[in-house]
Amino acid sequence: RRNEHLPIFRLPSEILACIFAINRTTPRIEEFGAEHLRWIAVTHVCRRWRQVALDFPDLWTRGCFKHGLNWTKEMFARSKTAPLYLEVTWSRTAKENGALIKAHMFHIRTLTLRTAISDTEFLAQPAPILESFVLKDSEIPLCLFANQAPRLHSAKLVDCTFSWSCLLLLRNLVHVSIINTTH
Amino acid sequence: MPTIVSVDDSTVPGEGSSRLLLLVSSDNKHIVVEEDIMSRSRFISKQVEGFEATSQRHAILLPFSSFVLNKVIEYCSHYRGYYLLEDDPDAAPPGRSPVREWDQEFLDVDRNMLLRIIKAAHYLEIKSLVGSCARAIADMIRGKTTEEMREILGVENDFTPEEEHSPSSKCTG
Predict the structure, then answer these.
(1) Which domain of life is it from (chain A) (predicted)?
(2) What is the pTM (predicted TM-score) of this model?
């Protein structure tokens, strides 16, 4: 009850969320370590702060799978339908990770997959708000994004095997980078 | 919603190149300020637009003290005539860019005052000032543990022991 009388508690929720967002870093995957989740300590301070953080989907939209599938599922759930920015590297549970991405493809804005993926069928899903896509060392499905990625303007394919037709059907692509490091 | 009252012309000093506004703080101090100075406030601008429909002069009653209001006016006076990107209605929310040097000095006040200023700036819809205050508060808690944040802001732990030790809280933040 004493908390309710504190000036910090009288701040509107959107300002508190704005303060939390400033401390949330958005590192590249290579730099993504436990210290980059330190901002989440705000959710343990008190009930109100926790609720404010949980009520602002934008706080939970930047991520990777580096902290495990459970964490990623929770983060996706907290992001609700806000645009997601994913930079992913994984190895062992690729199938489950792919299924999770497939389920959330409808609100992924940028997708960077940095490791070889054996089964890329989850990429044959419409991606209505996807703007940027990076894939490495994998085979691209024939029906990439079900040919429905109207906002996709940039794609980078590194050591990938693919059919040109799958790219030609993505009509809004402006910038395609195809890199082959094996030659 | 603010209360707007008609005021006698005699309460407002003579007109200069910029129209004068009368702001009334919660401690009932009357502060006359040029409209140009306060144009950074979307709230004030909207009020002034409403005034133009009538020929009456108006006072704008504000729900914070003259001490806080004077600080906000000081900020607006400093940036009078400057374009600040953050004040654009379509500007992105404040990021982690450093607080401007002048703002740092301006916001070198005690914690409670900083919180009052950000609340007033939010009410007046001055996005650049909200952003600078938010960055200053974010700096206070950046990298701190939960306990340290509670100590800095005087916040009590109001979680029940069950909530605090629930597996979901521990695993997922």
Answers:
(1) Eukaryota
(2) 0.81
Q: What is the pLDDT of residue B34?
A: 93
Instruction: Name the strands in the sheet holding A108-113, side by side, starting at the edge strand that comes first in the sequence.
Output: A62-63, A84-88, A108-113, A132-136, A154-158, A175-179
- Residue A58's SS3 state is helix
Structural domain harbouring B20: 4-156
Q: Which long-range contacts (CB under 8 A, 24 or more apart) does B141-149 make?
A: B141/A19, B141/A23, B141/A42, B142/A23, B143/A38, B144/A41, B145/A41, B146/A41, B146/A42, B146/A44, B146/A45, B149/A41, B149/A42, B149/A45
- DSSP run (H or E) holding A72: helix A69-78
Residue B75 lies in a domain: yes
At residue A38, the 3 state secondary structure works out as helix
Rounded Cα gap, residues B112 and A8, in angstroms: 8
Chain B, nearest residue to A43 by Cα: B173
Q: Is residue B163 part of a domain?
A: no
Chain B interface includes A82 (CB < 8 A): no
- Any domain includes B170: no
Going from the C-alpha of A11 to that of each of A8, A86, A131, B123, the distances in angstroms are 6, 31, 35, 11
Percent of chain B with pLDDT over 90: 58
Count of domains for chain B: 1
Q: Is B146 on the interface with A (CB under 8 A)?
A: yes
- pLDDT tens-digit series, residues B30-81: 999 999 999 999 999 999 887 765 656 678 999 999 999 999 999 999 999 8
**Closest residue on chain B to A73 (Cα):** B172
**How many beta-carbon pairs under 8 angstroms link A with B?**
94
User: Quick check: is B143 in a domain?
Assistant: yes
Contact A15 B118 (CB under 8 A): yes
Nearest one of A182, A141, A73, A31 to A133, comparing CA atoms: A141
Q: How many residues are present in chain B?
A: 173
Q: What are phi and psi of A58, to 5 degrees?
A: -60, -20
pLDDT tier, B13 (very low <50, low <70, confident <90, very high otherwise): very low
